[in-house]
Amino acid sequence: MRVSIVVVEELHKRYGENHAVRGLSLSIDEGEVFAIVGPNGAGKTSTVEILEGHRTRTSGRVEVLGFDPETGGRAYRERIGIVLQEAGMDERFTVRELVSLYAGFYPAPRAVDEVIEVVGLTGKADERTKTLSGGQRRRVDLALGLIGDPELLYLDEPTTGFDPSARRQAWDVVAGLCEIGKTVVLTTHYMEEAYRLADRVAVVAGGQLVALGTPEELVARTSAGRSVLTFLLPAGVSGADLPPLDGEVEVAESRVVVRSLSLTADLHTVTGWAGARGVELDGLALERGSFEDTYLELIGAGEPRG
Ligand SMILES: Nc1ncnc2c1ncn2[C@@H]1O[C@H](COP(=O)(O)OP(=O)(O)OP(=O)(O)O)[C@@H](O)[C@H]1O
Ligand SMILES: [Mg+2]
């Protein structure tokens, strides 16, 4: 059964004249990894920090785990974990001291050394945080978000500054949380991260929801994210000689690009046609559009390819 643990209705946030969040409504289910993506200044951090109880809202209804985050106080904070987009940390402490300190804020924290290990900082556990690199500090932030064993974890651009292997480790951490039923609210500028981790993705721009759905639904809704079939026209064959296809066919020079929702059928038609004529289709390939292409099309940036 789907249980919504985050409900946002008609959320608005104004900073003076700047209307940063403009009537956002969404709900997030228990056990879901929910990603919020959008351009710089779209209102992601404003929204997430309102959910966390770190910022006040101008208007709208927000309910998380049955609390209004503005008034939920300690009872609310004990059930959530937070990785802020920009977190300052006390540099006098070692990694282990800092994680232990945070463990003390929660009723049933995870084991300190286990969490340090999960974020890949075992070798740095006794170093003061001021001696750490940017990516290592970000791992400390992640450890501080995990230590309370929260039901709901907010991750605001958690992997910014991570090297590729650290990013994959972080993805495993998030996927592991989700397997044991935790809920994760994630913002990211890495579309592959959203695509791989999220059950659903909300695309926001200008403080408004532009699209919401599973990654596959969003891909299907755009032409840019779809796979395309490409090949070179055999010698002596023109575009007009091609068999009828479901997809949209574009011939440039001798390169044929087929954008289709029924690629299997179109691939079958094309290869059957070539086989019957005894011709080879050079450069025959299925190319998958990236989720970044889908995202760019949804926010209306650049020229969609379809
Ligand atoms: N504390 C603040 N005071 C005034 N304006 C703010 C404040 N925080 C954010 N804003 C403004 O609100 C808008 C949304 O900012 P927000 O940080 O929510 O965007 P974002 O989607 O998280 O962007 P990014 O991808 O760059 O992190 C921006 O125009 C920003 O200038
Ligand atoms: Mg932000």
Small-molecule components bound:
adenosine-5'-triphosphate, magnesium ion
Name the overall outline: elongated
Report the CATH topology name of the largest domain. Rossmann fold
Contiguous low-pLDDT stretches (5 residues minimum) are 302-306
CATH architecture of the largest domain: 3-Layer(aba) Sandwich
Relative helix content? 25-40%
Helix and strand run:
EEEHEHEHHHEHEHEEHEEEHEH
**Mean of all residue-level pLDDT scores:** 93
Structural class by secondary-structure content? alpha/beta
Largest beta-sheet details = 6 strands, mixed
Give the beta-strand count.
13
Given the structure, what is the number of helices? 10
Order of strands across the biggest sheet? 5-6-7-3-8-9
- CATH class category label of the largest domain: Alpha Beta
Domain module tally = 2
CATH superfamily of the largest domain: P-loop containing nucleotide triphosphate hydrolases
Q: How much is the radius of gyration in Å?
A: 24 Å
Distance between the termini: 38 Å
What multimeric state do the chains show? Answer: single chain
Report the portion of residues in β strands: 25-35%
